[in-house]
Amino acid sequence: MLARMKLLLIVPHPDDEVYGASGTLMTYLAEGQPCGLVTLTRGEAGRTLGLCDGPEELARMREVELAACLEVIGLPVHEQHTFPDKYLKDQPQEPLIQVAREAMQRHRPEIVLTFPPNGSNGHPDHVTTHTIVKAAWDSLDPAERPRLWYYASDTPPENEALLAQWLKPNVRHDVSEWVARKLQAIACHRSQALSTVDFIRKFPDRITTETFYEVQEG
């Protein structure tokens, strides 16, 4: 039987794995603990910064960027799906739930990480990913459920709707030893450089300290 996975990320877009969790991944991987990633879309609706033309070309570019990022992190286990970027909310939910459930059952992670109820920034794909991962997690036998983590920030959202669903972190990881590699991994997502600038401007502390909210059962 395969060794139980330590951490499994389930996120919608290429680059959702790197900003808030790459240091944690590198920590676990350095300890010899397997980790994995499920990416639900190819990111074809993202920014291009004039580097390519059209959704298909962007999707191919982001595939290369993600592969480079995961090589820097040292993460070999990755499942790429092709649900439509920006339109997850319009898709039948059961196939998405099934992808998340099957990934949890196959990899048997100790921890699953995804977005919180407000999607962190309200992005519809982030919110939908939260919904389907939570539904998949709820559908498992309680004895088989992994621990469930959400991305979380100490900085409360300014938007009132996002603030209403804000969850303060209760898990903290000092990842300062991995800063150089983390920044290198972030920089692999060249086409999404504006997202990098936005993240560092808003959450500079999360480069060296990765914070999460662990769901408490009962």
Automatic annotation (TrEMBL):
InterPro entries in alphabetical order: GlcNAc_PI_deacetylase-related, LmbE-like_dom_sf
A Pfam family matched in the record: PIG-L
SUPFAM superfamilies, A to Z: LmbE-like
Matches recorded under Gene3D superfamilies: LmbE-like
Protein name (record): N-acetyl-alpha-D-glucosaminyl L-malate deacetylase 2
Native source organism of the sequence: Deinococcus xinjiangensis
